[in-house]
């Protein structure tokens, strides 16, 4: 089963689709394969087009870079199939073993977490460089909105704050066994714990977010679409919630316009995904 999961800023889009025959089986153990792509970022260093053309692919045109992180879950363990950048109709593999892209950097820089530390990709020059000197196996990464500091999640489920251009890391002791991390626009840190429930890291420790279904299966936690100023975005199954730094939560209901945008994005993302697949798995 392939799981396609998307959440993009600017337009309210989160989607999840699944199908069983999207990828050739030969690369995976057939009984346990789960393919998963995420598009955490649309980089808008290029143009500022707010009108959505009818051609759904056009959503992602004019110098916008869309990242696709592909991974396979084999025997319960997520393995990377690489990070791809889609820009102006072209797909480029930028990092082999990476699963983590920092969403919504304000400049033309995207931060990527890899098995051997952090990389930075310039979406204008299309150059990839090592960032700082850390060598952790990074499976999650988020950049603060107001500073250049990052948070990383390492393979052993520890969260660190990374400062001084990637040369210093400080363990976030409050976040215990994190599965995923996210920041909101106010730079509050959230994470999904071992019990699949989201937490917010407050000055007096981590707090479990209240008001969510007890046995929710999180599919995404991220910075919310730009139209939502406060709180983070949490998707459980098909349902979106906003989770707040005061540990409360709120169901998010899409309006008609947002649903339309959602469907357009869905089609555009599917098209990009197919393009990535076609170019990489002949
Ligand atoms: C994402 O892209 C759309 C158009 O492609 C743009 O309107 C929106 O502002 C972008 N989001 C962010 C956070 O820049
Ligand atoms: C980008 O789009 C927004 C919303 O349509 C608009 O308010 C803003 O002025 C635009 N910025 C530029 C640089 O064109
Ligand atoms: C891109 O930006 C240029 C100049 O800012 C503007 O003339 C053009 O209409 C924009 N294109 C789109 C698709 O918004
Ligand atoms: C896209 O980027 C190129 C190179 O930086 C620039 O020359 C071009 O004007 C940009 N196009 C748009 C539509 O912004
Ligand atoms: C991001 O940080 C800037 C600078 O502090 C702030 O003005 C802006 O409101 C923040 N963005 C959002 C969406 O809150
Ligand atoms: C990274 O560089 C900083 C500053 O040059 C240094 O203090 C630190 O020990 C280095 N860390 C590693 C892991 O090499
Ligand atoms: C928590 O924060 C949200 C968003 O700022 C607010 O609407 C809500 O009333 C707050 N709840 C409590 C119990 O303080």
Automatic annotation (TrEMBL):
UniProt keywords, alphabetically: Signal
SUPFAM superfamilies linked to this entry: Calcium-dependent phosphotriesterase
Signal peptide: 1-20
Name assigned to this protein: Uncharacterized protein
Region (Disordered): 23-56
Higher taxonomy: Eukaryota, Metazoa, Ecdysozoa, Arthropoda, Hexapoda
Chain intervals with Polar residues compositional bias: 41-56
InterPro entries: WD40/YVTN_repeat-like_dom_sf
Transmembrane regions listed in the UniProt entry: none
Basic and acidic residues composition bias: residue spans: 24-37
């Amino acid at each position: 089963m392939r799981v396609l999961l998307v959440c993009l800023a600017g337009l309210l889009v989160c989607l999840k689709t699944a199908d069983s025959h999207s990828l050739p089986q030969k690369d995976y153990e057939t009984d346990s394969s789960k393919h998963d792509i995420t598009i955490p970022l649309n980089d808008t260093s290029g143009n500022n087009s707010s009108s959505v053309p009818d051609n759904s692919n056009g959503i992602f045109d004019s110098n916008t870079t869309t990242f696709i992180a592909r991974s396979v879950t084999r025997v319960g363990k997520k393995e990377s199939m690489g990070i791809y950048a889609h820009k102006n109709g072209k797909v480029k593999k930028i990092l082999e073993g990476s699963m983590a892209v920092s969403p919504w950097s304000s400049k033309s820089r995207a931060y990527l977490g890899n098995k051997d530390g952090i990389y930075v990709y310039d979406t204008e020059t299309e150059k990839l460089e090592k960032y700082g000197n850390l060598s952790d196996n990074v499976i999650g990464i988020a950049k603060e909105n107001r500073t250049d500091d990052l948070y990383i999640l390492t393979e052993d489920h520890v969260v660190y704050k990374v400062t001084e251009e990637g040369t210093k890391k400080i363990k976030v002791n409050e976040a215990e066994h994190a599965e995923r991390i996210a920041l909101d626009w106010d730079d509050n840190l959230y994470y999904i714990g071992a019990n699949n429930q989201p937490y917010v890291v407050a000055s007096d420790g981590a707090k479990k977010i209240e008001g969510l279904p007890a046995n929710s299966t999180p599919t995404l936690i991220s910075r919310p679409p730009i139209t939502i100023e406060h709180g983070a975005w949490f998707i459980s199954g098909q349902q979106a919630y906003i989770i707040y730094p005061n540990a409360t939560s709120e169901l998010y209901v899409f309006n008609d316009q947002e649903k339309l945008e959602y469907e357009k994005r869905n089609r555009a993302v599917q098209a990009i995904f197919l393009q990535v697949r076609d170019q990489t798995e002949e």
